[in-house]
Structure formats: C-alpha cells, structure tokens
Amino acid sequence: MTELSEPLPTRVRRRRLAAAAVAASAALGLTLTTGATSAQAGPATVTAAAALPTHVFAPYFEAYTGDDPATIAQNSGAKYLSMAFVQTHTAGSCTVYWNGDTSQPIGSTFASSISTIRSRGGDVIPSFGGYTADTTGTEIADSCTSVSSIAAAIENVVGKYNLHRIDFDVEQDSLTNSAGIDRRNKALKQVEAWASAAGRSLQVSYTLPTNTDGLDSGGKAVLSNAKANGTRVDVVNIMTFDYYTGGSHEMATATETAGAGLESYLHSLYPTKSTTQLWAMVGVTEMPGIDDYGKPETFTEADAGTVLSWAQSKGINEISMWASQRDNGGCPGTAGADNCSGISQSAWYFSHKWEPFSG
Question: Is the full-model pTM beyond 0.70?
C-alpha cells in the first residue's frame, strides 16, 4: 500500500513513506478522529477473540496516523481491521515495532483499542511489511537473516495480541528478494508448527500486487516458494488497484478478472483443491475513489456493489480496502490521498456497503 501523495513510477504499488504522510496530515490539520495515543498502555497479553468468520470485511487501518482503531471501527461499522504495519526500525534488525517506530512496541501499543474492538465482537489482523518496509529493507524477512529469529519475532506478535490471522504485505523490492522470500516462508512454517503445538488457530495471509489478469512473476514466486517450503498459505489477498498500464479500467471488472487469474494460478499450485476451496483462499483489497495512478483508475460507489455481489457469488474469503481513513468525500478530484477517497461520497460509504460481507 502507499502513503504520501506523490506520483508513483510505473508498476509501483501502494504505500509511500508513513512518516511523511503523518507530517503532511498534521500540517494540514487532517485528523479524522482522535482517541487513545498510538503507544497506549495495555496488558502484556491481549485476551483472544473468537475465530474470524469464513468471510470477512477487514479494511486496512493506517496505524501511523495517531488515530484510534477502536474509534475508527465503531464509527465506520467495520468490526474487523487489518492494521498496517509491523516492521523493523532499521535494516539488519530482528526486532519489530508498529511502523518501525521504537516508541510503538509490540504488546502495549494498541492493546487497549484491540481489547475494545474484541469486546464489540470484532478483531484485528496485523500486517507485516508494506511499501515503506519493502523499499527500505525493514520488512522482517528482508531485514533479519536468521530464520529462527524471524519466526520468534512473528510469534511474539501473535502471542502478545492473541491473534487468529497475520498478514504479510509483500511488494516492490521484497518481491525480488529471493533470499528474503525463502526466509519468510521457512520462518512461517516454524510459526505454524509452533501455533499448532500450542493449540492456537492461526491463519497466514499474503497481500500481493496484481495485474488485471492475475499475479505477476513476483507474486507467483512468493507463493511457489511457500509451497516448496511446505508453508501453509490460507489467504492470498490481491491489491486490485494501481495497475499503471497507461489506460483506464472499469475497476470492478478488473477485480473480477484479477481474481479469476489468481484462482487459476492457485489451481496450478494446489491441483487437489476444489474450485470452492480455491476461491475461499482469495481476498481482494480495493482502493475506493481515485487511486495513486489517477482518475483513469477510479473505483466508484457502483463498483462497490458489483464487487460485493461477485465476492459473495464466488465465496471469496476477504474484502479489504486501503484504507478506512480514506472512506470519506473530503477531497474530490484528489488522487491517492491517505485521508480521503478523491470522489464525492458520504462518510463511511464503502465500509457500510461491505461490512455485511463479514459472517
């Protein structure tokens, strides 16, 4: 995913510098909601929630903004949030923080908010990586060269927050780092074994960029390596925006063709799985409104209904979006903003449209 509002080069997707986005928002006074501070005090281990539903709407929450995820979840109606991002502070480190910020340690940060979300029947999915981490060497498997240390870092996040699912947003430089890809999957296999031995129900999802006809070679390399390492991948969540093809797209149609391409590739990896089982591994992340490429890639309110109907008919696992804090009409005509969609819309339109998918 992307942060900041500067033009992206061809084929670059998602998230630009988080720190710069926060500074820009502060300068403009663009805080959507206020709540607990980002480094909230909380229990050492957060009480677990019920398992995630079979189908879930889990929009991304921009954890670097200072917003309170429990407030965003309550206001938007989205019971489940994907929280972005977990990464190391510096390249070469094996210790992760929220947004790579040492003032946001794992465990205490967001603990109170996560407990509140769970008390309301929801849950969170922390996401490791993201564009900033993937381009600065601070994604955990790019940063840390010890498989066991990577596994320990992931297990610490899972244990401290009592998680049912963890996500890995792999894009840009991380898609071509074959050593990092292999380390990550080997570490995840260890994490899965650890969770199983402890009686934990833990799912692993990969969030990957896509073309309009499915994954490119980088995304396929991540998944084929996972299979080679015996790593279980439960969900493949494709970023159905920022195509950068030089033309315009009907974005709901592009989601459907990208999803079909992914299902076809998953069939080649897992030929014994049924079509129903393969579609149940699929997730899609939309960028409502005008994405980073610009107006030729505008996801409309009508597209939201089309995608919902398609997702329900195929039985996919997840609908997400980048990001909750963008779900308002505060900046018509603006592309790729972190805090508004760029189209005229009511506040939380997309959240309200997709929230019924959970269940």
Answer: yes
